[in-house]
Amino acid sequence: MFQRPQHLLSRAVASHRVLFIEEPIYQPMEAGLPRMQLRRTAQDVLVATPLLPQGLDEVRADAAQRDLLDALLDGPEGGKDIAIAWYYTPMALSFSGHLQPAVTVYDCMDELSAFRGASPGLRLLERRLMQRADLVFTGGRSLYEAKRGLHPSTHLFASGVDVHHFAPARNGTPEGGEPEDQAGLPHPRLGWFGVIDERMDLGLVGAVAERRPDWTVIMVGPVVKIDPASLPRAANIHWLGGKGHQDLPRYLANWDVGFMPFAINEATRYISPTKTPEYLAAGVPVVSTPVADVVRDYGEAGLAEIASTPDEVVSAAERLMARPRASWLPQADQRLAQISWDSLWARMAGLINQVSSRRSAAGSQTRAMTSSNAAPDV
User: Fold this and answer.
1) SUPFAM superfamilies attached here (predicted)?
2) Which residues contact 316 (CB under 8 A, 6 or more apart)?
3) Distance between CA 344 and CA 137 in Å, rounded?
């Protein structure tokens, strides 16, 4: 998945060396474990994945990751001083809390404690991270309202969009043609791309397909944390699996409606889906269940249809398919122009630089005071 962390930290390489620590992968016990697997992305981000032996409890897993991180930072790919420690999960504090960065950022893109399988210690670690952080960024309006009282420097940075990446979808099938697993599927097409997990209202997906057997429901994305057997099956529902970010415009180019069938539960209470502006950038109209941030940021502006029931989804999709593109694309483009990932990163970097400058000024003042109070040489 190429989402908020990848968009932002790929832009950070313009001014910093970026080391991205992924969550660990557990493997059968073998020689050479634990170890750090390294790869460098096309954007020049160094990605490090801890490979740990199966069977480690949480304490030993944290200790192993701390050792791997220290060895990496002490090696040729590391660096003596860390300018910014940038956190996406408070759980990472359990193996990196000993580091002393110049600036600590918590970019909170989800309420992770509400997710299935969340660690019982996550809330405590988030409180510790909030105490340590210099800046807290939130990935949506609802998250901002939930976190702003917990830290004095909390800032709203809702999902951005890479218009250039998705724009080819507006002009028919981009270079490479329509993907083989989608070619030939009948129209109209309702499409989803993204992770398929407990945040998905699978019952709604099945009910919409049942009400319109002549429509095609296309579901692109990996199935995570739920049993694949729980997916609704019908002749007009097509589960295509995960795809590369670079291939998404080829799929979107031939969708009639972008479908966002989120369940309304604790796991979706604070989400601000990145795919909403991405659908619009591709020229695909959107129908979504009433996720709070989608309603406020797009539904109230007329940039997304909001529907709760299968019948409402069908009616909303029919309205969208009957509406000429020219009637809504200019308004969508005006909105998209305000939320590019480039502009979001520039504003974030500005806040980080302010913290760094204050720290430098305070350090210089302290050194000056220490020098002036020193005893004269004899």
Assistant:
1) UDP-Glycosyltransferase/glycogen phosphorylase (SSF53756)
2) 287, 305, 306, 307
3) 11
